[in-house]
Amino acid sequence: MSDPDSGRAPQANGASVAERRKGKSSRRGKRKRGGPARPNAFSAEANQTGTSGPAATRPIDNDTGSPGKKRKRRRRSRGGAHDGAQHASSTQQQQASSAPEQRAAAGPSHKNGKNRRKHRSKRGLQGRPLVHEKTAQIVAPAAAATAEQAPARNEHDNRHPPQQRRDGHAPHHHADGDYRPVDLYAALDLGTNNCRLLIAQPTRPGQFRVVDAFSRIVRLGEGLGASGRLSSDAMDRAVEALRICAGKLKTREIRRMRLIATEACRAAENGEAFLSRVTEETGLRLEIIDRETEARLAVSGCSSLVGPEARSVVLFDIGGGSSEIAVIRIGENRSSRLANHITHWTSLPVGVVTLSERHGGRDVTPDLFETMVREVEGMLERFDCPPVQGAARDSGDFHLIGTSGTVTTLAGVHLDLPRYDRRRVDGVWLSDDEVTAMQAKLLSWDFAGRAANPCIGPDRADLVLAGCAILEAIRRRWPSPRMRVADRGLREGLLTDMMADDGVWRRGRSRRGHRPRDMKGPQT
Fold first, then answer.
1. Is residue 157 part of a domain?
2. How much is the pTM?
3. What pLDDT is attached to residue 205?
4. Beta 342-348 vs 179-180: how paired, if at all?
5. CA–CA separation, 484 vs 314, rounded Å?
6. Do 344 and 376 lie in a common domain?
7. Which residues contact 391 (CB under 8 A, 6 or more apart)?
8. What is the residue-wise DSSP string for 137-205?
9. How far apart, in whole angstroms, are the C-alpha atoms of residue 80 and residue 92?
């Protein structure tokens, strides 16, 4: 036996008498035999007998004269078997309601302590079965709490458990114990070149978290400039994309949504007929918005990118069939809605699709590029707008904001991204010299070189230089030392306006009791 002050515990093939009287199992049965042991009550009891020595550090010996056998005899002489029988009886009563798997793991019961110790290696200490249910009961709540605190890995990932509130259906818990569905908003923008959908949940004031998103190039306005009508192939591509959007909306409880169509449906003779077909085949009812509304929505979507130091901003959205430009002047009293500060706006009847079809987008020479720039400049000359304060000089209170595939492409090429990454592009600043260098770089590439770039691709290779021509005309009209890139636009403006109208960001406002609205119609 060892000295209790030495910190060593004897190697025993079972629990001590003191531990059994406490109704606790020893830890030695769960560790490898012959390994180091912890000091326990048995060490102190053994010290009272006057036995000590190095036996505590030796492995268990099967010889009859081994210290292990001697300790067994001493325990039996003290009534250890009697105590063990009582403890076994108590344990069996506690496990009477356990699962059948636990009873099977325990094996046949034995009536005396000797047989229990004989089968200890198979059944655990003191006849207790080796089960892991308690560990699982402890780990599961901890794992759930960790998952609740963990940030979303992917803003479109719907595989998280309900308590993580990733899919938009899980309830929010309030201090009063009440639950309500998560408020979800949806915005769809069917443009001349793209079909885009966003589903989002409001978070902090003026912000929201994207729950799901969809974007596809459909080229709805293909051939529109020449024929004045939407082609059958273009309408088929758009309807197919809208079916996907309808499927996403049907699987969620949307509180409010707004579905819009822009220049292609606005200008086409069969635009209204096409939207009637969309309603019949997808159940979605889209509204055609005017150009002023489009300009205001573009400003609303980019409001968070206008810093507090800005006093004047020219924001432009280069679309597929039209380009919206808004002049913003911010005084001392800044409104929560940036669109309220628009002083002048215009919508040019030209976009990347219409301009490239008119001049050709595959083989663009410097002379052809300059021709496109001058055409757009002529349109801007008819825009009656006084000079913007701070333009044409290095001033921190004026800058440009571009929201379109053209400017995001320029930013991606400038950053030399291996693949387009919205998180790195949205909000990035480009100097005037950097924009000039990127346009010259794209102009030096042929169609195959532009298509091979991961930030352009074959779908935009014939459109990007037409967009650069529109951008160059805007830069010549409003020179600025820097431009901010926005990977956002009408969808974000729609979401921001709907959430602001509903007051979801007002402190203390209760939003319970609102029922989801019909997904088939636009809500205003």
1. no
2. 0.62
3. 84
4. unpaired
5. 11
6. yes
7. 312, 314, 398, 478, 479, 480
8. HHHHHHHHHHHHHSPPS-TT---S-GGG--SS-SPEE-TTS-EEPPP-EEEEEE-SSEEEEEEEEE-ST
9. 18
More confident residue, 486 or 386: 486
The 3-class SS string of 376-440 reads HHHHHHCCCCCCCCCCCCCCCCEEEEECCHHHHHHHHHHCCCCCCCHHHHCCCEEEHHHHHHHHH
Residue 288 main-chain phi, psi, to 5 deg: -90, 120
Is 389 within the bounds of a domain? yes
The pLDDT of residue 515: 39
Structure tokens at 510: 């209760």
Q: Are 228 and 316 part of one and the same domain? A: no
Residues 322 and 394 in one domain: yes
On whether both 212 and 317 belong to a single domain, the answer is no
pLDDT score for 332: 75
Please give the tally of structural domains in the chain. Answer: 3
CB-based contact 464:353 (threshold 8 Å): no
pLDDT, tens digit, 9 for 90 and up, residues 346-357: 999 999 999 999
Residue 515 has a CB neighbour count (10 Å cut-off) of: 7
Is 151 a member of any domain? no
Is the pLDDT reported for residue 62 higher than 50? no
Higher-pLDDT residue of 93 and 280 is 280
State the burial class of residue 523 (Cβ atoms within 10 Å of its Cβ: 0-12, 13-18, 19+).
middle
The mean-pLDDT minimum among 10-19, 242-251, 395-404 falls in 10-19
Say whether both 15 and 73 belong to one domain.
yes
How many angstroms separate the Cα of 270 from the Cα of each of 6, 265, 266, 267, 289? Answer: 95, 8, 9, 9, 16
Q: How far does CA 154 lie from the centroid of its chain?
A: 3
Residue 316 pairs in a beta bridge with 325, 402
Identity of residue 98: S
Better pLDDT: 256 or 73: 256
Closest-CA residue to 188 (of 103, 303, 297, 273): 297
Check which CATH number belongs to the domain holding 326 and give it.
Answer: 3.30.420.150
Domain limits at 70? 4-131
113 shares a domain with 20: yes
145 burial class (0-12, 13-18, 19+ CB within 10 angstroms)? Answer: exposed
Percent of the chain with pLDDT over 90: 51
Structure tokens at 153: 């890995």
* Cβ atoms of residues 134 and 99 within 8 Å: no
Can you tell me the distance from the alpha carbon of 33 to that of 60, in angstroms, rounded to the nearest whole number? 8
Question: Is there a domain that residue 121 lies in?
Answer: yes
Helix 67-77 vs helix 80-94: crossing angle, to nearest 10: 80
pLDDT digits (tens, 9 = 90+) for 186-232: 999 999 999 999 999 999 888 899 999 999 999 999 999 889 999 99
